[in-house]
Design goal:
Strand order of the largest sheet: 1-2-3
Radius of gyration: 16 Å
């Protein structure tokens, strides 16, 4: 409900002025309980025990400038499932799709169509 806090969040997510008012309006009317639930779920999430059995191809992304916990999460996901492929997006934190929309779209299109991922990404093996 605090505009200044929403500005901080928007900056972290690469939401620019064009989209900020919509973002602020949408989040402003969220119930406190909903926000608490989201935060609790984010902080307590664990991979399901049968995750290693998942047989779909998975693309796991992390921004190069994201918090260490997110980078460790990428590693854990890759170690937990042979179908997972990890990539690091250079010069970005949490907000790949807003920070680099063209690169994001190229990445998704390449992944869906079984083509090589953009060279800008660092593939993690």
């Amino acid at each position: 409900k605090n505009r200044w806090f929403s500005k901080l969040q928007a900056k972290e997510l690469y939401i620019d002025e064009v989209y900020f008012e919509k973002y602020y309006k949408d989040t402003k009317y969220m119930k406190s309980k909903s926000i608490i639930n989201i935060l609790e779920e984010n902080l307590s999430y664990k991979l399901p025990t049968n995750f290693r059995n998942c047989k779909v191809k998975l693309l796991v992304t992390v921004g190069e400038m994201e918090k260490q916990i997110m980078q460790k999460s990428l590693t854990k996901i890759l170690e937990s499932n042979a179908e997972a492929k990890g990539v690091v997006i250079p010069n970005v934190g949490h907000g790949f799709s807003f920070a680099y929309p063209h690169l994001f779209n190229q990445t998704i299109e390449a992944w869906i169509n079984d083509r090589d991922l953009p060279k800008e990404l660092r593939v993690i093996n």
